[in-house]
Design a protein that fits this description.
The chain is of the alpha/beta class and 368 residues long. The chain has a domain at 124-314: Dihydrodipicolinate Reductase, domain 2. Helix content is 40%, strand content 20%. The protein has a seven-stranded mixed beta sheet with strand order 8-9-10-7-11-12-13. Strand 9 and strand 10 form a beta hairpin. Helix 5 (100-112) packs antiparallel against helix 13 and helix 9 packs across helix 13 (337-355). The longest helix has 22 residues, at 285-306. The chain is globular. The chain starts with a strand and ends in a 13-residue tail after the last helix.
Amino acid sequence: MLKVAIVGCGKIADSHAAYIQRIPCCELVAVCDRELLMAQQLQERFAIAAACSDLDEMVKTVSPHVIHITTPAQTHYPLAVQCLNHGCHVYVEKPFTLHADETARLLELAESKNLKITAGHDAQFSQAARRTRELARSGYLGDRVVHMEGYYGYELGGVYGNALLDDKNHWVRRLPGKLLQNIISHGIARIAEHLKGDAPTVIAHGFTSPLLRSVGENEIIDELRVIIDDHEGTTAYFTFSSQMRPVLHHFRIYGSENGLFMDEQQQIVLKLRGKRFKSYAENFLPAAILAKQHVGNFFRNTRLFLKSEFHMDSGKKFLIETFYDSILHGAPLPISTREILLTARIMEDIFAQVHGASAPIASVSATS
């Protein structure tokens, strides 16, 4: 039985606590936050044994095997180092760290201590994402991936968006990549998974949308276009937009034989036939084949919903379960360390080009 603790008791910690408590092989034994009241409110709502305001004290008191870090990104690196030095396996929410060199040092430290560490890229483990991965690994795409296209839409309205735009000292503004760093890791990680080269060329263009400029915002970049070339025969385009409608969470991957399309929001996966039909059949049969696949997606999603396996954050539960399985039974990590580091390097390259944010800034050592 794994003893699990959470550090950082803000909104995201609720989903972690809920899914941890649904997994049979573990027990959520403690929560920790620099503001003790935050830890206590989470403790009370989820009936957790201990609440602390100091990480060292928590580890000494309950001796957790795994710690989930759900604090603001500026604190991820120092807290993860602290947890690893205590001998704990670590789940770090996205973005993994502020800088790629911090990511590399964390991964090396975990390996040197024979401990497991993973990143909170849970969108890679939704029902649709797992089906896409299974088809890709089965050879449906052919012998290689040729090109990928990722679209990640984001609505800046609502409580979160208004807080970010209204507060010039918001913690997201202090990230090297600002809004982009807090959002795009899901989309970039999906591309990084299928790249072969470890030092891709990245060309990025980002800008503040006319809508944000019209309300006096000139710091937040909410439109991003990226080209990636891994020098091994695979390229990718990535688009992030707060203004494009509809809001898309799409991923297309094209191989040497066939392609795949995934809609993350609608949990749809479509097989894209590589060969053309002869003559006028090309004008009729593909529509029928796609229609049949859409009907299949409808019935698959309905079955999953009726089995209570279609909840919004099912990817988080699957990622946590798979991470715990790697700890308990030596199974492979759900996300390889190579993919975590490659994602960090691509993101840092993007931020350097659109924000001039290549130089590391001091990490904040805090537990909130």
